[in-house]
Amino acid sequence: MNIDKLIEQMTLEEKAGLCSGLDFWHTKPVERLNISSVMVSDGPHGLRKQDDSSDHIGVNDSIKAVCFPAGCAAAASFDRNLMARLGSALALECQAEGVGVILGPAMNIKRSPLCGRNFEYLSEDPYLAGELAAAYTNAVQEKNIGVSLKHFAANNQEHRRMSSSSDVDERTLREIYLTPFEIAVKKAKPWTVMCSYNRINGVFSSENKWLLTDVLRDEWGFNGYVMTDWGAIVDRVKGLEAGLELEMPASGGIHDQEIVEAVRKGVLDEKILNRACRRLLEINSRYVENAQPETIWDKDTDNQLSAQLAEECIVLLKNDDNVLPLKKGEKVAFIGEFAENPRFQGGGSSHINCTEIVSALKASGEYADIQYAKGFSIEKEEMNFDLMHEAVETARTTQAAVIFAGLPDLYESEGYDRKHMSLPEGQDRLIEAVAAVNPNTIVVLHNGSPVCMPWIQSVKGVVEAYLGGQAVGKAVVRILFGEANPCGRLAESFPFKVEDNPSYLFFGGNKERTEYREGIFVGYRYYDKKKMDVLFPFGYGLSYTTFEYENLVVDKDRMDDTECVTVKVDVRNTGRMTGKDVVQLYVRDIESTEIRPIRELKGFEKIELKPGEKTTVTFVLDKRSFAYFEMKINNWYVESGDFLIQIGRSSRDILLETKIWVNSTDSLPVHYDMNSIFIDIMSSERGCKLVEEYMKLLFFDEQNSESAEQAITAEMAEAMMHYTPLRALFSFSDGDKITKEKLNRLIDDLNKDER
Ligand code: BGC
User: Fold this and answer.
1) Cα–Cα distance between 367 and 478 in angstroms, integer?
2) Which of 47, 56, 158, 228 to mutate to test the pocket of ligand 1 (most atoms within 8 A of CB)?
3) How large a percentage of the chain has pLDDT more than 70?
4) Residue 120 C-alpha to ligand 1 middle, in angstroms?
């Protein structure tokens, strides 16, 4: 199809119409020109295709589909391959159901455990979120179905989500909030990106040219189309100019008409409209020309896949005295309504109308003599004494007690944020009561975001099952009884309490804005810098086997920032069970003039090893692994110096490290004037030489009398000299030896050097 020819044949009205939805889920067709309508549907962890009544908040039913592990769980796999398996399955479902674009992955950074939509999002770490989203995107698009990376950008709370401004400085935006999108755009070329509802530093994302064009297209090379989040449009014409192609859903023709009028009045250049149509038609034709409506998707196959994926997302958080795995055939208490009715997905636009649900109770039959006690009602906050009594009496007689606890639907959902980080009080009390009578108490958690665990010292085991999809019950039981070896790792830190979270003071913001005052110190970047204890750190997770790490080698110990370094490390399974481990690579800038986190994740690989088996894991690091975003050059910059390459099993468990010198091939612009201070001037060899004679003029050097030496230590004198500006030479030195002309000549000389 020659798209430019097609656009030439379209009327102004048809072109404007193409830029908004036909209805909730379709783009507009232009029948006389054979332009087809394309269907889009939510995502991200299952297909929410609505055939009849439509809505974007999950009120009306969608077709029956398989609910896979939600983002919170999928990310805990730390596994690109798992994301790809998920993406492939969903793409096949889309092909079979005639859906051209699946809305997701949802990849906003988890700034606070309170964000109501954390369950859909991936991580607090931008590298992890970006890598996982890229793997998912590549797999979906390989099958000629598009994705829509969402929600672009800085949409990290639900409170006032359609109006609030996320006020974030640019370095923080670049290093934390934009990086996941950047990685996915560069590595996977998404067909579409969905702009967020919120404003960023006062400008709505839907009309933010800097975001949608300068950064997304011009810097990152995005070549798909941008759609709005549902109803995120503000000024339609401004949006088009900023680089927003598709308004979703429809606006009853109102905004289309605004576009037409703007072109007629000469306010909007028609070329901009043509550009938007071209982008839309290019992407839509990719689907239309490769649609495979004859595809059949098998619900049982996908249900089984859902169980397998869930298994690999579960994180074993505590396993004292190897209380897990449970012995088969034993008498075990299953307590808590979630054992019967697991919570496996969150509320809102990602809500899947499941084909079937497997509870742990249902899945456990063949493994053990299970004694079930309801313990609590999911929707009840307070304790029910009768249910608790029954649960305690049941737990008293069994070898182990597994409590299925978690957050009720009401506690976390799209549309609003959580109020606190606690489980319902009744559940916390039940756990304490059961643990008091049964020494082998294990808690299984169903939640989309961290919870407080006031009972952590009283129980022997904790299994974080997250919102693991419709087959989570089967996965949990297989983990509990050792049929599967836990291999999930936390993609987010679990603080002890919400007040520990770096965004706590500002999260939610006021009526207009939310200030991201913690800056780049999000998640472990903050806890590590503050040396603050956390309940469970980023990257953490246990296994039923053990691994040993050795032979960390790099192929060079000095490099320019234009080069790459290859890092290798050997990992051996030293236990008795086949298992998977996540090898994590962090980079630490040992000494930096910029304020930087202690360490940042720059590589991860999930590997599977049989008992005794060893493998070598390889990472390649480039400039970006060592860089920070330097505002002076509006670009990524490596400050020359030593860096540590650290290999660990969590951000708090570094096992091996090695040093590398990275040399910057960029230089920062420097300009000297009367206010320049000595220490900055002396950072270059030439600067040192040029100011040598002036330093001598400073009286801080002269310490002859004993009392002067007591008053001014050598350290103090040095510091005073370092922080003295050139202009102070007039005040602090022998006036005869220094003139304004002389200093101006010095400044000219210094500036010559740096140009
Ligand atoms: C959500 C999006 C979703 C869209 C369509 C919006 O409310 O924020 O994530 O894709 O609705 O359902």
Assistant:
1) 9
2) 56
3) 97
4) 11
Q: For ligand 1, atom 7, which residue shows the shortest CA distance?
A: 56
**From the CA of 56, how far away is ligand 1's center (Å)?**
5
**Which DSSP letter does residue 28 get?**
P
Q: Which of 79, 125, 167, 229 is catalytic?
A: 229
Task: List the Cα angle 304/129/166 in 5-degree steps.
Answer: 130
Spatial distance between the Cα atoms of 423 and 450, rounded to a whole number of angstroms: 10
For residue 294, what are its two tokens?
């004859």
Burial of 702 (0-12, 13-18, 19+ CB in 10 A): exposed
Task: Please provide the DSSP assignment of 520-584 as one string.
Answer: T--THHHHHHTT---SB-TT--B-SS-EEEEEEEES-SEEETTS-EEEEEEEEE-SSS-EEEEEE
- 123 and 173 Cβ atoms separated by less than 8 Å: no
Are 257 and 224 contacting, i.e. CB atoms less than 8 angstroms apart? no
- Answer whether 120 contacts ligand 1 (Cβ < 6 A): no
**In percent, how much of the chain has pLDDT > 90?**
90
- 23 Cα to the center of ligand 1, angstroms: 14
Q: Ligand 1 atom closest to Cα of 106?
A: 9
CA distance linking residue 552 with residue 54, whole number of Å:
55
In this prediction, residue 706 carries a pLDDT of 72
Q: How far is the CA of 205 from the centre of ligand 1 (A)?
A: 15
Ligand 1 and 349: CB distance under 6 A: yes
Number of CB atoms found within 10 A of residue 548's CB: 12
3-class SS of residue 753 = helix
Segments in 265-406 forming alpha helices (H): 270-288, 299-313, 360-363, 385-396
**Res 607: pLDDT:** 98
214 is an active site residue? no
The per-residue pLDDT for range 309-327, each reduced to its tens digit, is: 999 999 999 999 999 999 9
For 159-185, give one letter per residue: b (16+ CB within 10 A) or e.
Answer: ebbeebbbbbeebbbbbbbbbbbbbbb
Whole-structure pTM value: 0.96
Tell me the CA–centroid distance for residue 122 and ligand 1, in Å. Answer: 16
| pLDDT digit string, tens, across residues 146-171 | 999 999 999 999 999 999 999 999 99
Q: Which pLDDT score, from 0 to 100, does residue 365 have? A: 85
Nearest ligand 1 atom, CA 42: 10
**Any idea what the Cα angle at residue 222 is, between residues 120 and 177, rounded to 5°?**
40
For the stretch 661-700, pLDDT in tens is 999 999 999 999 999 999 999 988 999 999 988 887 776 5
Unique residue bearing structure tokens 């011009």: 218
Ligand 1 atom with least separation from CA of 56: 12
Ligand 1 pocket, residue 42 CB under 6 Å: yes
